[in-house]
Each structure stands twice: as structure tokens, then as C-alpha cells.
Design goal:
By secondary structure, the protein is an alpha+beta fold. It has 23 helices and 13 strands.
Length: 520
């Protein structure tokens, strides 16, 4: 069934008329040569179309016309309902398991942000923005520079994502903490925020972006949007607005202004631009909340309106995902953490490769070929056969499996420029043979390694380490944090920062975490 607007239907009608020698209006024949009649008709059509601009026709293949679907109850007042919840939700309302996951999210985010702080991408951002930054209000984690809160939020957001080692909401593959934590930690350095309030805002911001992401995923992502940036801006705006004490109307406006600032395209994957997206989402979220706090207005339905965010950026809109069960079910409790510094779709293959390597003491020279049966999305996202630099290696299943076998790990060092140029790894990745297998889920892999002596080794991964089914333990998160911060913060400071994160609820000011992450 073809669906057209009334405006388009009128245009089609006019074209049909103009092809005829004469036509009828109100039972009268109007000759084609009567130009004045045609002009009068043309002047009337926009009025008709304008009066019925909300109507549309569905024209079936048999030529019949049916009225378009009207908005459902679920699509009404979505922005208002969400804003009302954000304004009224209290720390005391959060279940204990949700609070604990929020703390684990914070710990992981601080670790990856400190770890990424010396990357060339961050160096460039600091150099480019430094001369134009406002007052030195907020810290850059892992560095001595201080920037205004807008630029500090941006740079910390970039730093948190540059290794692709951050948290993941597996239902949408949003990396939730980057946009939200980067925004509210910067704000806490100019406006003291109690630890409980900080944790509450962090969880509510993550809840906001993940619920909005649920409403449009996967169609939105499949179109080419980087959902961490496009949904993350809502989380940053909501969390910042919560700490600014916005009222319901102001929160509606903050969400509306966030909707006007989607950022991030999947074409950027494999370049510095990818980490730009969560950084910019953090920056844009603060921008939206600050403007709304001074009554800078927006539409009251910017998420769900006909020409609002969801209808503009996606062919799927499931608004119940945003509004149903607010305060009862928590997407923030479904966050996961990466043991490997790359896209989540690569983790099953890396897990299988490391297990087979360790169990059989494998060396690259023993291997004839490695066959991996993978979901189609794996090659869509990570099909780069010959990565030229470390960032590209994160989007190469060939490199990821090869480096996992050679080095028995897949941390940030395994996705460096050094690693992608290693001749042993380069040789082995030519022997990696992905086989697209639609029945294999994205959480799975089936790997067979054929050795030169004729033996075959097999491993099937149902759920990789780091998934909700096989989560990283608190101890594993601490080891990851320590490895990332090593060489950037002194050993005693690393321990103190981790303790501050674990005990955030007891802090008088969450900014203590940021200040402890500045090297002495």
C-alpha cells in the first residue's frame, strides 16, 4: 500500500487534469485553454491542502483509498510523561540492585575515561579547543588541563569512548554512561552535588536514553545513526536537568531541545569521529538543560510529534518502551561492561579464540585456518579485512580473532597501531574465514580452528564474558580500571578513586571523584 499526504494527492490530481483537453469543476466543463480558470484552481488547492494538512491517504494497488492511521494512545504526551517522571523520581525510590549497577557503571566509566585520556584523539581535542575554552571550571580526567563545563564534558565523553571499552546496553548497543556521566560530573564541579543525587541523576539519565533507544531500535540504527549520540543527548539533558532542579515544563523543553540535536552517523566508525559522538551528546545535553532552566522553550511533544524526533529519525516508533513501567522496570539495571576493547559483536569470537588458545597452548604458526560462523551483523559492523590503524582494528573481526590468538588478550594494547601492523598478526588474519550464518545470534559464535597437523579444535560461545548472562565481577572491573589507569595516575590514587566510586552515595560532593583523577 502506497501512502501519500493530501498535499501530494492534490498535486497528482492537478497533473492529471493538466494532461486532459478539458476538465470539470462543479459540473461545468472548463476548457484547457482557460488559463485564468487554471490559475484560480491552483490558488484554491493550497487552501484545501492546508485545511487538511493533518490528513493523509493510503492508496492501495487497486486504487482504493483508506484513511491513514490515527495516533494511538501510547503516542500521546510521551515527552510530558517522561519529563514528569524525571522531575519527581527520587533516590529513595531506586531498588538496591539498580543503585548497585549504577555504581558499577560509574566505576567502569571513570576507568575508561582516565585510560583514554592520553590518546592522540584527546590530545587533538585539547589542543584545538584550549585556546577558545571559557573559565577552567571542570577537570579533564587523567590530565592536568581544566576547561569550562561544556568543553570538559565533550572531552571526557570523547575520552570515555575512544577505546570502545565502555559500558553497553545490549538491547540497543547504546554506550550509556559516556554522554550522561561526562555531563553531570562536569556540572558537579561548579555546582556541588551530593553523591546520592549524583547517582540518582546518572541512573535516570541512563534510563531516559535507553528507553528512547528501545523505542526506535533497530530501525534507527540500521538507517545509519550512531544511537549512542542520538539517544545519549536525551540522557545528558535529563540528568543535567535533574541536578539543575528543572520543573516539569522546563524538563519538557530540555528534552525538546535535546531532540533538536541528534549527533552521530555510523559512517564515522573506525575514525576519531566515532568518539566525538558521545562527547558531543554530553555537551549538547548540558546546553539543552541550561537553556531550559532559563525558560528557553521548545515544543511539548518533540519526541513523539508527527514531525518530532522519533518519526524523523526512524521508521519504528514504539512509545510504550519509553513510558511503560517508569519507576518499576529499569533499563539501567541491564547495563553491561566490556572485557575487550572493541565493539560488543566481536566479543563472542574473541572469547572463543582466547579459550581455544589457552586450553591448547596454540601458536599462530600451527594454524591452517580459522572458521567462524557469525551473525550477519558481525561482518556488517566489523568487516574490515586490512585495518591500517588501531581504531580500524576495532572494526575488524579478522584482526580481533588474530590478535586474541597471538596475544591471548583484547585490551586497548591489542587494538593499537602497533598491533595492527604486527607481521604475525597480519599473517594470521588472512587465515580467518567468517561464515555468515543467520541462525547464529549476535551473542553467539561457532569457531573451528584447523591445524596444520590435521587436528580440529571447536568452541561454541552462547554468551560471552561481559554479557548479562556472564557478567564481569566487581573484581574484574577493578582489574580493568587499574590496568587502564596505570601510568596515568599513581598507584595509591588509583585505589582512592575506585573507593570514591564504590562509595559515591556517601560523598558530600561527587566532584571529589573528578578532582582525584587529576594527576599531581
Amino acid at each position: 500500500m502506497l501512502r501519500v499526504s493530501w498535499d501530494k494527492a492534490c498535486a497528482i490530481w492537478v497533473l492529471h487534469i493538466l494532461k486532459a483537453r478539458d476538465f470539470h469543476i462543479g459540473g461545468h466543463v472548463v476548457p484547457f485553454t482557460d488559463r485564468r480558470s487554471i490559475l484560480r484552481l491552483a490558488a484554491v488547492i493550497p487552501v484545501i491542502a492546508g485545511a487538511t494538512s493533518t490528513a493523509s491517504l493510503q492508496i492501495a494497488s487497486d486504487g482504493t483509498k483508506k484513511p491513514a492511521q490515527v495516533p494511538t494512545e501510547a503516542s500521546k504526551d510521551v515527552t510530558k510523561i517522561l519529563a514528569r517522571y524525571m522531575v519527581t523520581a527520587k533516590y529513595e525510590d531506586l531498588p538496591e540492585n539498580v543503585r548497585q549497577e549504577g555504581i558499577r557503571t560509574l566505576l567502569n566509566w571513570v576507568g575508561v575515561t582516565v585510560g583514554g585520556s592520553r590518546h592522540q584523539t584527546v590530545n587533538i581535542a585539547v589542543s584545538a579547543l584550549g585556546p577558545f575554552s571559557g573559565p577552567p571550571q571542570a577537570s579533564i580526567l587523567g590530565r592536568r588541563e581544566h576547561f569550562d563545563i561544556m568543553n570538559a564534558a565533550f572531552i571526557n565523553g570523547v575520552s570515555s569512548h575512544i577505546f570502545d571499552y565502555d559500558d553497553t546496553h545490549l538491547k540497543t548497543i547504546i554506550h550509556p554512561a559516556g554522554p550522561v556521566a561526562s555531563a553531570i560530573l562536569a556540572l558537579s564541579e561548579v555546582q556541588p552535588v551530593a553523591g546520592k543525587d549524583f547517582l540518582n541523576a546518572l541512573i535516570l539519565g541512563i534510563e531516559t536514553e535507553c528507553r528512547i533507544g528501545n523505542a526506535v531500535y533497530p530501525n534507527h540504527f540500521d538507517t545509519g545513526w550512531h544511537i549512542t549520540g542520538t539517544a545519549g543527548v536525551f540522557g545528558a539533558a535529563a540528568a543535567t536537568g535533574k541536578l539543575l532542579g528543572l520543573n516539569e515544563q522546563q524538563m519538557v523543553w530540555a528534552l525538546g531541545l535535546a531532540a533538536s540535536q541528534p549527533v552521530g552517523l555510523r559512517e564515522s566508525f573506525g575514525s576519531m569521529n566515532k568518539s566525538f559522538n558521545p562527547g558531543r551528546a554530553a555537551n549538547n545535553g548540558i546546553f539543552a538543560a541550561l537553556l531550559a532552566s532559563k525558560n528557553y522553550t521548545s515544543s511539548n511533544g518533540m519526541i513523539e510529534a508527527k514531525r518530532g524526533w522519533a518519526n524523523t529519525v526512524s521508521t519504528k516508533q514504539d512509545y510504550k518502551e519509553i513510558t511503560d513501567g517508569l519507576g518499576q522496570r529499569y533499563e539501567a539495571a541491564l547495563n553491561s561492561y566490556k572485557p575487550f576493547a572493541c565493539g560488543i559483536v566481536l566479543h563472542p569470537a574473541i572469547d572463543a579464540a582466547i579459550q581455544l588458545r589457552n586450553d591448547n597452548k596454540l601458536r599462530a604458526e600451527q594454524i591452517e585456518r580459522v572458521e567462524i560462523r557469525v551473525n550477519p551483523l558481525v561482518l556488517e559492523l566489523t568487516g574490515k579485512k586490512t585495518p591500517r590503524e588501531g581504531l580500524e582494528g576495532k572494526f575488524s573481526v579478522y584482526h580481533a580473532v588474530a590478535v586474541a590468538i597471538v596475544e591471548g588478550a583484547a585490551g586497548e594494547k591489542q587494538f593499537s597501531d602497533r598491533a595492527v601492523a604486527d607481521p604475525i598478526i597480519v599473517a594470521l588474519r588472512k587465515k580467518i574465514i567468517p561464515i555468515i550464518t543467520p541462525k547464529i545470534q549476535t551473542s553467539q559464535v561457532d569457531m573451528t580452528i584447523v591445524l596444520k597437523d590435521g587436528r580440529t579444535l571447536h568452541r561454541h560461545i552462547q554468551h560471552a564474558i561481559g554479557s548479562l548472562e556472564v557478567p564481569m565481577s566487581d573484581q574484574m572491573l577493578e582489574e580493568k580500571f587499574a590496568n587502564l589507569a596505570e601510568g596515568i595516575l599513581p598507584g595509591p590514587a588509583i585505589r582512592r578513586v575506585m573507593d570514591l566510586c564504590w562509595n559515591v552515595e556517601k560523598l558530600g560532593n561527587a566532584a571529589d571523584i573528578a578532582r582525584m583523577c587529576v594527576p599531581s
